Amino acid sequence: MTDSDSVRFIDSSAARRISLIVWVGGSVALLAASVLYILTLVRSMAPPHDVFVPIMVLVFPLFCWSFFVTTRYTGLGRRPLGELPMAWRALTAAVPRPAAVALIAFTLAGAVLAFITLNTDLPAGQPQYDSVHNTYGLNIHGTVQVIDHSTYLTAVAQENRLFLAVYMVFLPVAVLGALFHRLRTRPTPAIGDTAVDTA
To answer: Which residues have a Cβ under 8 Å from the Cβ of 9 and sit 6 or more positions away?
Structure first.
């Protein structure tokens, strides 16, 4: 696909429909991740790993789509980080400033949570359950250390918080990018042309 083909596709009604799906799906996934993160703080309510699978499957495709469509207008895929002020002006021209600020703040909060979790809240090993012997353990570089049920739940909650914190970094970006694309490509846009020449 050439650059001109990409531009035509991004500006098409099909791309707008995809962005609507990304916007709605990303918002639901972000809400779910936030609720699940809070639940992991209560050990007795720590959800099982299977609950995270739908979010894990969705997060990176949603993020990649939003990055793809927004580079049509911000040029971030081809230009240095010095273009960020221009990208912010283009974004707030299409998205209400409070919504943009809230989602960016949510992204930064997720990044902080991921950093804190990675550095202070990681389990000593991979929590696992041995159904044959009905025991719980931590797999530390191939060596399994037997632990009690309470310690196992704590380790599972810690592991879940790490994944959720990472998801809470990428999902707001996906939601914000899809919303920007939807508003920027309306049939009768309410904003001026802020696109960057990507030729």
So the answer is: 1, 15
Q: In Å, how far are 34, 37, 141 from 117, measured between CA atoms?
A: 15, 11, 20
137 close to 146: Cβ distance less than 8 angstroms: yes
CA distances from 65 to 112, 114, 136 (A): 24, 23, 40
Dump pLDDT digits (tens) for 29-82.
Answer: 988 988 888 888 886 677 777 788 888 899 999 999 988 887 766 554 455 455
Residue 70 · residue 177 · CB < 8 Å: yes
Alpha helices in the chain (DSSP H): 3-10, 13-40, 53-74, 84-94, 97-120, 149-184
5-19, 68-82, 101-115: which is most confident: 5-19
Q: Which residues contact 66 (CB under 8 A, 6 or more apart)?
A: 19, 22, 26, 173, 174, 175, 176, 177, 178, 181
